[in-house]
Amino acid sequence: MSTPLNIRIERAADGQLALLATGEIDASNVGDFAEALNAGAGDGTDVLTVDLSAVDYLDSAAINALVPHAESVQIIANPVLMRVLLVSGLGELTKIRSATESDD
């Protein structure tokens, strides 16, 4: 049984929007994830931080939902997701960093 997906969009103290997801992202709930990405990315003038540090699993459907927003997002990923995100080529389209890396 998969872990339910929870998504929320918040504005950080610096005014930047962040999409925070927890659980698993797969074909069963990618529509909700894509809808949140569309809402958070807005017109693409601001960079949306997509925080996947509490996501334990994602499949190709989640990657496909991220690709259209690659120029307007930056991703913070759970270390277990780094390999799949980088092998997918998404790392060539947008900034991806492990949640264990510092902000320097």
UniProtKB/TrEMBL annotation:
PROSITE patterns given in the database record: STAS
CDD domains the record matches: STAS_anti-anti-sigma_factors
Coiled coil spans: none
One Pfam family of this chain: STAS
Superkingdom of the source species: Bacteria
Domain STAS residue range list: 14-104
Name the UniProt record assigns to this protein: STAS domain-containing protein
Organism this protein belongs to: Mycolicibacterium pallens
